[in-house]
């Protein structure tokens, strides 16, 4: 199943068509994109009676974030060994967790640039579909609604301000700093959801490229770790980390500028286009 948020309404891909879920379900599910996540088991049961998605369509016009109002958004730092290396940091012994505040979540489109030290980080984003608390890693995928493409945009000057008391949460949560989409794809659509090709292009030049099999802490491991400390709710997001190739790790460092275009692509999930504009 592939779901999207088009002009604020939940749609599902059926064959070569996009179907409005509220209309197709005769009002059983509302138009709000979050309505399916709140009743995920019921929604997936209904979806089995619908036509299959087929080949992935291009990003829908007016696509918004497939999960517009997550209650919790978790970021995971240093979750690829090559990114830890370019950052000059040791590999973590447990997941390095920081908050991305939910007000930063947006869909494909333009993001205003608040400073001249903003960097890119393409990431696989996990969408929780069932409440998870003390979940074993062997059962973790059963709590996943789907996967989507994300960008963990980061103001590096703000992120590292204060030295030891760094501002990861703020530096990664400015308005528009959490683009996701355009599709939410259920794991059954993917040949191997634990090994997806991931890449990011800046103005047509490939800056990042890897596979999610290189995650230090896998999707099941992250769900098990997080749910051991707090409950995960339907619609919560986990930004799972980025591979090497960010601008801050280059010599000299490269940061985003107005007019730049990021295209973030993950195998089976599509491409997320983010255009960089000047701050108003």
TrEMBL record:
Q: Which UniProt keywords apply?
A: Hydrolase, Metal-binding
Please name one Pfam family that this protein belongs to: FAA_hydrolase
Q: Extract the signal peptide range.
A: none
Q: Does the keyword NADP apply?
A: no
Q: Which domain of life is it from?
A: Bacteria
One record GO biological process: carboxylic acid metabolic process
Domain (Fumarylacetoacetase-like C-terminal): residue spans on this chain: 73-276
Query: GO molecular function of the protein, one example?
Result: metal ion binding
Q: Quote the Gene3D superfamilies the UniProt record gives.
A: Fumarylacetoacetase-like, C-terminal domain
**What protein family does this chain belong to?**
Belongs to the FAH family.
Q: What is this protein called?
A: Fumarylacetoacetate hydrolase
């Amino acid at each position: 199943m592939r779901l999207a948020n088009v002009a604020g309404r939940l749609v599902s891909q059926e064959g070569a068509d996009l179907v409005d879920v509220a209309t197709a379900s005769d009002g059983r599910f509302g138009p709000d994109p979050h309505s399916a996540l709140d009743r995920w088991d019921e929604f997936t049961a209904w979806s089995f009676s619908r036509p299959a998605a087929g080949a992935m369509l291009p990003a829908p016009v007016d696509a918004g974030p497939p999960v517009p109002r997550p209650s919790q958004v978790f970021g995971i730092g240093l979750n690829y060994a090559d990114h830890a290396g370019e950052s000059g940091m040791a590999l973590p012994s447990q997941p390095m967790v920081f908050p991305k505040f939910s007000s930063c979540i947006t869909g494909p489109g333009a993001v205003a640039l608040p400073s001249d030290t903003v960097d890119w980080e393409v990431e696989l984003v996990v969408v929780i579909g069932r409440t998870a608390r003390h979940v074993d890693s062997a059962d973790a995928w059963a709590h996943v609604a789907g996967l989507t493409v994300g960008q963990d945009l980061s103001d590096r000057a703000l992120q590292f301000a204060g030295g030891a008391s760094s501002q990861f949460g703020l530096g990664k949560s400015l308005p528009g700093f959490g683009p996701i989409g355009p599709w939410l794809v259920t794991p059954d659509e993917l040949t191997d959801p634990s090994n997806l090709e991931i890449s990011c292009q800046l103005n047509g030049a490939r800056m990042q490229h890897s596979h999610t099999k290189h995650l230090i802490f896998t999707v099941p491991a992250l769900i098990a770790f997080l749910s051991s400390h707090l409950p995960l709710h339907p619609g919560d997001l986990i930004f799972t980390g980025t591979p090497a190739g960010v601008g801050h790790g280059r010599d000299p460092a490269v940061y985003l500028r107005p007019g730049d275009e990021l295209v973030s692509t993950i195998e089976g999930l599509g491409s997320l286009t983010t255009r960089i504009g000047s701050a108003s």
